[in-house]
Amino acid sequence: MKPILLLLLQIFLLLPSLSSSIRTNYTSIFSFGDSYTDTGNLVILYGGLTATPGVLIAKPPYGMTFFGQPSGRASDGRLAIDFIDESEMEPLAEALGLPLLPPSLASNQSFRQGVNFAVGGTTALERAFFVDKGFKAVSPFNISISVQLGWFDALKPSLCSSPQACKEYLAEALFVVGELGWNDYTVMLLAGRSVDEAGSHVHEIVGNICAATERLIEEGAKTVVVSGIPPLGCAAGNLALMANQTGGEYEPDTGCLRDLNLRSREHNAQLRRGLARLKRRHAAGVRVVYADLHAPITDFAAAPCRYGFDGTDGALRCCCNGAGGRYNFNLTALCCMAGVSACVDPSAYVNWDGIHLTEAANRRIADGWLRGPYAHPPILRNTR
Predict the structure, then answer these.
(1) Long-range contacts of 194-201 (CB under 8 A, 24+ apart)
(2) What InterPro entries has UniProt attached to this entry (predicted)?
(3) pLDDT tens digits, residue range 39-49?
(4) Per the residue annotation, which of 35, 71, 139, 227 is the catalytic one?
(5) Choosing from 201, 267, 294, 356, which is the catalytic residue?
(6) Residue among 313, 353, 367, 376 flagged as catalytic
(7) 110 an active-site residue?
(8) N or C: lower Cβ tally within 10 Å for the chain?
């Protein structure tokens, strides 16, 4: 065989092993986002689990499924950030030989192996944007994504001793920019703004998410998972409260509000395009994963039984509320209020409290991010 042909054959034989090589030995995890990712920061801001009578997620039955008590997570158990493993869907940090992510505001914690900066209520836009326009539903805390990045910068000196040491340390970390955008749109909608007006800010919101992602890459991140937003029109709370505001048209296959889901799709499409441009600018050695939150939830709504959820109530009706009716949601009977209890089997439901997901839904979404089809590319697949 001619030398050049032999060389080509050797390269060809090596391609499968190269294409299947992916990094799984991350030494730390850094996470950002809102209540879909928060593992306790919001509760800490309000004073902690024992001092937060006004914070519903600090009370049972939150945490009932896995922790046996409230953990600061807006779910009956674990979140998507808590799940990842190649064979069995175990908690993310445990699968990597790391502890579950502590909230960044926790005291007496070591953050060397990772930390979660996410806070319930976080927006992609600055808080001043909403305050200046008189929006009342915005969080009382200054917790935009840019603020979380500031917390990260302030923490770095305790994690690495020099700029070069930080570059090397962060290159071995997994970064997760969790769900952002839901609160931006919801604050506007709750103030009576139209769906179109809320949607007119998609470009700004997505721009801030992409800017945050790029900032992490410039600081040394080599693997960043960035989440899209869920379908706004499939949340039990929005279905109960916003049907008139959105025109009341429902998708025939899911039963979700059409206009709200169109806005979610537009946001996610712009985000994917922005991340693609970002990837092209930082092609060498950088991996950017788009984690889809819209497709799995609409899949669950269209065919709940296929994914293990109750075919009658499990798709759009929330588990923990005291309202009854089609969606089991009312602002006067929220999860944890007096006289309100959770459903007997949260694993049969997609929606936990009208906004957030059950552990069962989070588990399935995380599996879709790992192997597909709900991540682009899947976390456990190389980009080559």
Answers:
(1) 194/245, 195/245, 195/246, 195/259, 195/260, 195/263, 198/263, 199/263, 199/266, 201/125
(2) GDSL, SGNH_hydro_sf, SGNH_plant_lipase-like
(3) 999 999 998 76
(4) 35
(5) 356
(6) 353
(7) no
(8) N
- The burial of 289, by beta-carbon neighbours within 10 Å (0-12 exposed, 13-18 middle, 19 or more buried), is given as buried
Query: Distance of CA 262 to CAs 30, 222, 377, Å?
Result: 31, 32, 23
Per the CB < 8 A criterion, the answer to whether 153 and 201 are in contact is: no
pLDDT of residue 15: 34
Q: Is 282 a catalytic residue?
A: no
Token reading at 315: 């798709």
Contact 384, 19 (CB under 8 A): yes
- Taking 70 as the pLDDT cut, the residues of the chain under it are 1-24, 49-54, 84-97, 381-384
Which amino acid would we find at residue 226?
V
Query: SS3 for 287?
Result: strand
Active site residue 353: yes
**Amino acid letter, residue 280:** R
Rounded distance, CA 295 to CA 367, Å? 13
From residue 53, alpha-carbon distances to 50, 56, 70, 140 in Å are 8, 7, 13, 16
Q: With beta carbons less than 8 A apart as the criterion, state whether 245 and 195 touch.
A: yes
**Token pair 């279905």: residue:** 239
